Amino acid sequence: MTRIDSPGVPSGSISLTLVLIAVAYLFGSTLPAGCSANNCPSPCTCTWSKVDCSSKSQASLPDTLPRYMTDLMLNNNTLKNIPPGTFDIFDHLEHLELNDNPWHCDCNIAYMRSWMIKNENREQFKRVKCSSPEPLRGRVIMYLQPEELSAYCELFNCKYLNMSQGSLYFTVIFHGSLIMTVNISTLYLKIFNVIIGLARLKLTVP
Ligand SMILES: *[C@@H]1O[C@H](CO)[C@@H](O)[C@H](O)[C@H]1NC(C)=O
């Protein structure tokens, strides 16, 4: 019986290589979390860390965007706003396409504007423009002044005013009832004193 061992390549290193390939394969298929076909948000298409949601008539962002995406295409949809904080969890997001959406430029667009300004590659946002309100139509969002945005925040201001008015009423009623409680207690004390006085009087009178 003849055994032929290939010199210099111990069988151990071959199985180690196989194990490494298996690990790499498993790792590779789970690493681009959310970028493999099974958790690509509908109706977008995903290629590795790139998520393409462009031209899908979307009025809002998909609920679950992959955490590790580097590119997000949202151009040519019907987006009016990006909710504040939306992009904060995507640490690797660099390339973002927001062109050709009917962006509504009031104070709610301030988050998106500041995100674009802070981005290293802000050149990519030179074509992201307001669609409404009419006086800001066609303006590049990045170049708007904060005052221009706050001029279109009536709704927000109303809400805020209502809230502060509500808390004012509450404070007035609360204080009013406190004062009444104190007054009533003082009254009771006075009555109590009178009763005690009368009782004393009765006791001392033989
Ligand atoms: C924009 O999206 C619509 C569908 O929502 C599509 O029909 C149209 O061709 C797209 N336009 C461009 C310029 O990609």
TrEMBL record:
Recorded superkingdom: Eukaryota
Keyword Iron-sulfur part of the UniProt annotation: no
Provenance organism: Eptatretus burgeri (Inshore hagfish)
An example Gene Ontology biological process: blood coagulation
Subcellular location per the Swiss-Prot or TrEMBL entry: Membrane
Signal peptide (from-to): 1-37
Domain LRRCT: 101-154
Keywords assigned by UniProt, alphabetized: Blood coagulation, Cell adhesion, Disulfide bond, Hemostasis, Leucine-rich repeat, Membrane, Signal, Transmembrane, Transmembrane helix
PANTHER family recorded: GLYCOPROTEIN IB BETA (PTHR22650), LEUCINE-RICH REPEAT AND TRANSMEMBRANE DOMAIN-CONTAINING PROTEIN 2-LIKE (PTHR22650:SF4)
Gene Ontology, cellular component aspect: membrane
Membrane topology: Single-pass type I membrane protein
Residues in LRRNT domain copies: 39-71
Official protein name in the record: Glycoprotein Ib platelet subunit beta
InterPro entries: Cys-rich_flank_reg_C, GPIb-IX-V_Complex, LRR_dom_sf, LRRNT
Membrane-spanning segments: 168-192
